[in-house]
């Protein structure tokens, strides 16, 4: 089935750039606060304070996936160790050696931006360090494929190749997505695939590329809360994400400081 996409004007991308810069600054601050002994609730409060300071709207809080699952209760997704995405921050204590994924979106002047980063708390294991490093590298391998005329499959292929070359698996059941007036828009942006397949990229597209790499199997499971997604084998997972605009000649990362 042919995917739809929402092309943005230059003025709309300018607003998304402003949204993305605010988000990047908040995420950078949050990442710097991750250390053994801090709680998820403390990180949530920092994020809430920053949201108020910048006068933006949190994209995730009260987000609804279906009527059988509670609306998302937090401004942050905080996922630790074997949690891949969508973890609740409340009541979590971060310990020495944990790896912590912080995922956040904000809405500014009607436009959303979405970004994620994974950091270690204190001294982490070599396998955790490598997983974080390769996940971040995989994100940028995917971003490098963004230009008019390339296809969605080129992005996924680049992410998958780098991840698997380094001994990690790519989550298949969760994908990147368009971003704009809604936090989730078409098209889907998988982190796996084949070259020269999928939707053709063109200037004005905006979407989030977000590799989720696992230490073990790419299979997942969901907690009873209906949100928190974990690795099926209890092994580590890492997550990085940027909101990207396709330009006339390539790409622009909108969620950078």
Report what the structure shows.
The chain is α+β, with helices and mostly antiparallel strands and 257 residues long. It is built from four helices and 15 strands. The protein has a single domain, classed as Creatinase/methionine aminopeptidase superfamily (Creatine Amidinohydrolase), CATH 3.90.230.10. It has helices at 10-33, 40-54, 126-143, 152-165, and strands spanning 57-58, 77-80, 83-85, 99-108, 111-120, 169-170, 176-178, 185-189, 206-209, 212-214, 220-222, 229-231, 237-239, 242-246, 251-253. A five-stranded antiparallel β-sheet has the order 8-7-9-14-15. Strands 1, 2, 4 and 5 form a four-stranded antiparallel β-sheet that branches.
Jot down its keywords.
about 260 residues, alpha+beta, Creatine Amidinohydrolase, five-stranded antiparallel β-sheet, four-stranded antiparallel β-sheet, 15 strands, about 30% helix, about 25% strand, globular
């Amino acid at each position: 089935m042919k995917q739809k996409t929402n092309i943005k004007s230059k003025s709309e991308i300018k607003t998304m750039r402003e949204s993305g810069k605010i988000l990047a600054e908040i995420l950078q601050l949050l990442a710097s606060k991750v250390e053994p002994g801090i709680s998820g609730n403390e990180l949530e409060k920092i994020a809430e304070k920053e949201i108020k300071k910048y006068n933006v709207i949190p994209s995730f809080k009260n987000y609804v996936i279906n009527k059988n699952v509670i609306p998302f209760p937090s401004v942050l997704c905080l996922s630790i160790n074997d949690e891949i995405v969508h973890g609740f921050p409340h009541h979590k204590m971060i310990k020495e050696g944990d790896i912590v994924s912080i995922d956040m979106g904000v809405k500014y002047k009607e436009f959303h931006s979405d970004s994620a980063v994974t950091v270690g708390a204190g001294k982490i294991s070599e396998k955790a360090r490598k997983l974080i490093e390769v996940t971040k590298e995989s994100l940028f391998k995917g971003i490098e494929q963004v230009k008019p005329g390339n296809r969605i499959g080129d992005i996924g292929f680049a992410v998958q190749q780098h991840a698997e070359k380094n001994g990690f698996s790519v989550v298949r059941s969760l994908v990147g997505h368009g971003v704009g007036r809604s936090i989730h828009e078409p098209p889907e942006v998988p982190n796996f695939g084949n070259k020269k397949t999928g939707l053709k990229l063109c200037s004005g597209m905006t979407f989030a590329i977000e590799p989720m790499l696992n230490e073990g199997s790419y299979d997942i499971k969901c907690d009873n809360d209906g949100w928190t997604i974990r690795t099926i084998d209890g092994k580590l997972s890492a997550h990085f994400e940027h909101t990207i605009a396709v330009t006339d000649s390539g790409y622009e990362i909108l969620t950078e400081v």
